[in-house]
Amino acid sequence: MNLSISKSIVALVLGMAVTAHAGIYSYGGGAYAIPDGSLAGVSSQITISGASSSFSDISVAINVSGGYNGDLYAYLSYDGKLVPLLDRIGLSGSNPAGAAGGGMNVTLSDTGANGNIHAAGDSSLSGAWKPDGQTTSPTAAYSSFSAGGGSITLDGTFAGENPNGTWTLFFADVSAGGGTSTLNGWSLDITAVPE
């Protein structure tokens, strides 16, 4: 009986030692407008401190209302690296106007069940998507965009980094018309590497 209890305690302690601590870090500022037709765009930051020194997985939650999704360009940057999250959703050789929807409440991760957000289509978006990941300039001709998005990933770019520092979300509405989008909030969900 005592041997069984001892084995259970050892298993419990070992299980606790390899647990990966997750953290959700939210932007603490208020909502702000993304200026219509301005390549200068706007940015906001989340500063992380006290997290594990390395992580294995990251996702980004974004809540945007209004505007025209096909006009939006956004990226996440940290420590000199960046990942294009949105690159004019829906814009391609067969869709010169891009996605007509306005607004989104999405989570972007490398395992997004709905596929690449570039192929999301016309609607107010929700759910889990893969980031756009293409490096096409947001001002390039519509025929330059891949209808299925690109291959740059969040984990492929950032995993293994020390997450403690300042993360920046940049947003621009690169084509005038379609109204003004508002960023209502955003957050990072980081899973630490087990210690």
Q: Could you walk me through the main structural features you see in this protein, from its secondary elements to its overall organization?
A:
There is one protein chain. The chain has 195 residues and is mainly beta. It is 11% helix and 39% strand. A hairpin with a 2-residue loop joins strand 5 (72-78) and strand 6. The two termini are 31 Å apart. The model is unreliable at 1-20 (pLDDT under 50).
Task: Summarize the structure in short.
The protein is mainly β and 195 residues long.
The number of strands is 10
Oligomer: single chain
Structural class comes to: mainly beta
Q: Total number of helical segments? A: 2
Low-confidence segments: 1-20
Write the layout of secondary structure elements.
Elements lengths: L1 H16 L4 E5 L5 E3 L3 E11 L6 E11 L6 E7 L2 E7 L15 E6 L16 E5 L24 H5 L6 E9 L7 E12 L3
List keywords for this structure.
195 residues; mainly beta; 2 helices; 10 strands; disordered N terminus
